[in-house]
Structure formats: structure tokens, C-alpha cells
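quick q for whoever's on today - can somebody do inverse folding on this one?? i tried earlier but teh output was garbage lol. C-alpha cells:
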């Protein structure tokens, strides 16, 4: 191989490493806790209809940490897996998590009625509560939480939803504290939750 080609390959490799490093730094900075530098604040106030009746007002959650996850009941894998794993983590944490609340907010309010959401979350830990925004509320919530969602047509004439798969963690003052990624190891997930609950 000619020296010029080797040099070009080396430069390309170094550039790739630098780009990957910059992306990793940006992602890490984006999701830092509230006491550290952050590019964006994540989260925002909400008052949403609950599958348990009434509404959940984020302003009334002060004093205790909580988690938020966006998904939908027709989700084939990500949502049931995430809620099942979260249920296992809550059970494993014992009394330290007895008052912890997890809010499952639908990105498909057209199909996910309060009754449908109530039936769905009944399959998981009772600390997981379903919330149903209106379309307008969802349009405001998504950018507040930096959440992506989109309707995707299916071959049978129906549709599914693409959406962000992270769980968002908030401390007792209601400030963003970090995320749990889809498929994250159980040990890491529980360590993050324990740290949040004991902080």
C-alpha cells in the first residue's frame, strides 16, 4: 500500500475517533445531573389525566423522587420489557422504593384511553401509573423532555409508534437527575435508582 493511502486511512481513523469522542461527551453532558453542567434542562411541568382517576400535577410531586417513561400500549417489545424490568428493580430495592412513583406517559393518546392504560399497567408493579395527555399536551411535553415520537404506518393499514426509549429520573426537588437506557444492565439500573432514592 502506498504511503499516501496509509496516511489517508490514518487521518480518517483519527477523525472518526475524535467525532465519536465529541458525540459521547455531548451525550454525557446533555444527561448530567442537576448539580453539573448541562446543555439542556430536561423535563417540565405537567398536569395529566391518570389511569387511577383524577390528574397528576408535577408541582405536587415535590419532596420525593420519581421516574417518567414515554411509550404506548401497542408497543411490541420496548415498553413491556422496560416496565417489566422496572418492576423487577422496584421489587429488588425493597422498602427504600416503597413510595417511588413511575409515570408511564403514552405517545399514542388516539388509541391509549385511560381504561386501556389502566388495564395495561395492571400487568406491572403497582407503583407504575399510566398518564394520558391530550395531543396538544403531548406536543408540549415531548420537547420539554427531549422526547422523540412519530407515527409509522404498517402494511396492514394501521400504525405503530417510534419513540425515545429512555426512563427519565427526577430527584426530590423535581429536577432531572439522569436516565436509564433501554436494555441497561440490571445492576446499573438498580444502582441508579438506589442512588436517587437515598440522595
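ok took a stab at it. sequence:
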Amino acid at each position: 500500500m502506498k504511503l499516501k493511502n496509509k496516511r489517508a486511512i490514518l487521518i480518517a481513523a483519527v477523525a472518526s475517533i475524535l467525532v465519536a469522542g465529541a458525540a459521547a461527551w455531548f451525550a454525557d453532558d446533555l444527561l448530567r445531573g442537576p448539580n453539573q453542567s448541562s446543555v439542556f434542562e430536561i423535563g417540565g411541568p405537567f398536569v395529566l389525566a391518570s389511569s387511577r382517576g383524577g390528574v397528576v400535577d408535577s408541582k405536587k410531586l415535590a419532596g420525593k423522587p420519581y421516574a417518567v417513561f414515554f411509550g404506548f400500549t401497542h408497543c411490541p417489545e420496548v415498553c413491556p420489557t422496560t416496565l417489566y424490568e422496572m418492576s423487577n428493580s422496584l421489587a429488588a430495592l425493597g422498602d427504600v422504593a416503597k413510595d417511588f412513583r413511575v409515570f408511564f406517559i403514552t405517545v399514542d393518546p388516539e388509541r391509549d384511553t385511560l381504561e386501556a392504560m389502566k388495564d395495561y399497567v395492571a400487568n406491572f408493579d403497582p407503583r407504575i401509573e399510566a398518564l394520558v395527555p391530550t395531543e396538544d399536551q403531548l406536543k408540549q411535553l415531548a420537547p420539554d423532555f427531549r422526547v422523540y415520537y412519530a407515527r409509522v404506518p404498517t402494511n396492514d393499514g394501521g400504525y405503530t409508534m417510534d419513540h425515545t426509549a429512555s426512563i427519565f429520573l427526577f430527584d426530590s426537588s423535581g429536577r432531572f437527575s439522569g436516565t436509564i437506557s433501554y436494555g441497561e444492565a440490571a445492576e446499573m439500573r438498580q444502582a441508579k435508582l438506589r442512588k436517587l432514592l437515598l440522595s
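fwiw The two ends are 58 Å apart (CA to CA). also Residues 1-39 have pLDDT under 50 and may be disordered. so keep that in mind when u check it
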